[in-house]
């Protein structure tokens, strides 16, 4: 009997192929949208983790103010750090391998007829160690350049491409804002981050040079602290917080006027944003599944009306009500299953295209694929039951009179 119901259902679907295709379109769109959104979201989360790894292992970033790394209206400002704060972190906390002082701004760099607006960073060689930057050509700063604040700089690959093309930048003199500096090194590329930020778009100066020639003050805007591999990053972060509270004169009941986040927290923060956006978009996309279900119910009701006389004949020659119920319910389920299968294929294709476009890994979730397909079948059962029940309850005599 089930085989006969399947045969009749397939026959009815292909008899009105265009109408059937339009009926399942809502299911196709819903399933495809959910799968595509979740796939791109998972890929973005994986890329965030990879990008945070590029910041260096066991890294704690310390900045003045609260919420400044998260952004938003609740972010607060506070006095900057000093070079002595940075040295105290490195000297007084055994778990710290190196601590790099960092200050930065945006300024225009010029070479010949070429120019670019880029990040100008002031730091020392400890930063390259903590962030695991490798030199592609040239060298890092020497001790004399760091102490005296000479006009030398190290550039990233994006600045090199903009100013020099494929040429060798080491040894050339470029202008950074109002000052001239000699390029002594070129760093290897780290590429774009998850959210499109170019990690190679910068010029790095010795901190003393930046403070005297660019910023005009002795402020340190952040500390980039690398914790030893054999030490606990949580314990190190607590020690850093305690030390900074002491140095900034914050009492036992006072609130921190700075923020210390390790790379795990940073990754969690970014992936949390990605997960929320993915969830919201997926929820909106899932509404299409309900719309698709309503479409299936609507077309099945139309089908029952169109085939009333056929139903009456079947009932009159001995078909049971449950046979008619099964026939129409199977037809609704097949429609929703077809929509689910096409939606899965389309969703994976869109997910792949989106991952390529955003330069993130293609990472489909088998669980979401199965859940989406299962939900599409559930939609067919739920929204197909009422029309099927209506067909099964038709009076044979009244159905035979129907024109």
Describe this structure in words.
- Helix 3 packs antiparallel against helix 10 (263-306).
- This protein has helices at 2-15, 17-23, 25-54, 83-92, 125-130, 143-148, 157-164, 207-215, 233-247, 263-306, 308-316, 321-358, 366-392, 396-401; strands at residues 59-64, 96-111, 114-123, 135-138, 152-155, 173-176, 179-187, 202-206, 222-227, 258-262.
- It has 403 residues and is α+β, with helices and mostly antiparallel strands.
- Helix content is 57%, strand content 17%.
- It folds into two domains: 2-50 and 269-401, no CATH class; 97-221, no CATH class.
- The longest helix has 44 residues, at 263-306.
Quick synopsis:
The protein is an alpha+beta fold and 403 residues long. It is built from 14 helices and 10 strands.
How many whole angstroms does the radius of gyration measure? 32 Å
Mean pLDDT: 80
List the quaternary state of the chains: single chain
Number of domains: 2
Order of helices and strands: HHHEHEEHEHEHEEEHEHEHHHHH
Portion in beta strands: 15-25%
Distance between the termini: 28 Å
Number of strands: 10
Largest sheet: 6 strands, mixed, barrel
Strand order of the largest sheet: 2-3-8-5-7-6
**Tally of helical runs:** 14
Low-confidence stretches: none
Output the structural class: alpha+beta
What is the overall shape? elongated
Helix fraction, binned, reads 55-70%
Question: Any chance you could write out the topology, listing elements then pairs?
Answer:
Layout: H1 2-15, H2 17-23, H3 25-54, E1 59-64, H4 83-92, E2 96-111, E3 114-123, H5 125-130, E4 135-138, H6 143-148, E5 152-155, H7 157-164, E6 173-176, E7 179-187, E8 202-206, H8 207-215, E9 222-227, H9 233-247, E10 258-262, H10 263-306, H11 308-316, H12 321-358, H13 366-392, H14 396-401
Parallel strand pairs: 3-8, 5-7
Antiparallel strand pairs: 1-9, 1-10, 2-3, 2-6, 2-9, 4-7, 5-8, 6-7
């Amino acid at each position: 009997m089930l085989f006969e119901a399947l045969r009749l259902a397939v026959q009815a679907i292909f008899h009105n192929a265009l109408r059937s295709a339009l009926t399942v379109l809502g299911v196709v769109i819903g399933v495809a949208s959910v799968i595509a959104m979740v796939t791109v979201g998972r890929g973005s989360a994986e890329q965030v983790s990879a990008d945070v790894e590029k910041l260096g292992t066991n890294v704690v970033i310390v900045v003045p103010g609260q919420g400044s790394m998260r952004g938003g209206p609740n972010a607060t400002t506070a006095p900057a750090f000093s070079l002595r704060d940075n040295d105290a972190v490195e000297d007084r906390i055994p778990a710290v391998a190196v601590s790099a002082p960092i200050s930065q701004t945006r300024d225009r760099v010029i070479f010949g007829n070429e120019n670019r607006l880029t990040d100008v960073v002031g730091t020392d060689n400890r930063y390259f160690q903590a962030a695991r930057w490798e030199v592609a050509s040239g060298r890092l700063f020497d001790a004399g350049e760091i102490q005296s604040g000479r006009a030398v700089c190290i550039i990233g690959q994006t600045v090199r491409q903009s100013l020099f093309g494929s040429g060798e930048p080491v040894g050339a003199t470029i202008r950074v804002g109002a000052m001239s500096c000699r390029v002594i090194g070129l760093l290897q590329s780290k590429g774009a981050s998850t959210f499109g930020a170019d990690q190679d778009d910068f010029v790095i100066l010795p901190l003393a040079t930046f403070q005297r020639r660019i910023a005009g003050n002795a402020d340190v805007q952040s500390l980039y602290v690398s914790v030893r591999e054999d030490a606990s990053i949580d314990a190190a972060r607590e020690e850093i917080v305690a030390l900074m509270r002491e140095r900034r004169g914050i009492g036992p009941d006072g609130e921190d006027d700075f923020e210390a986040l390790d790379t795990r927290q940073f990754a969690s923060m970014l992936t949390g944003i990605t997960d929320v956006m993915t969830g919201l978009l997926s929820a909106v996309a899932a509404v299409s599944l309900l719309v698709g279900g309503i479409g299936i119910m609507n077309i099945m009701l139309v089908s029952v009306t169109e085939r009333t006389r056929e139903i009456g004949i079947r009932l009159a020659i001995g078909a049971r009500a449950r046979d008619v119920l099964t026939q129409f319910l199977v037809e609704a389920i097949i429609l929703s299953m077809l929509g689910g299968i096409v939606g899965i294929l389309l969703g994976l294709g869109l997910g792949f295209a989106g991952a390529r476009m955003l330069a993130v890994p293609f990472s489909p979730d088998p669980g979401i694929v199965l859940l989406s397909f299962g939900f599409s079948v559930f939609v067919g059962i739920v929204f197909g039951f009422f029309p099927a029940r209506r067909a099964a309850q038709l009076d044979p005599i009244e159905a035979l009179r129907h024109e």
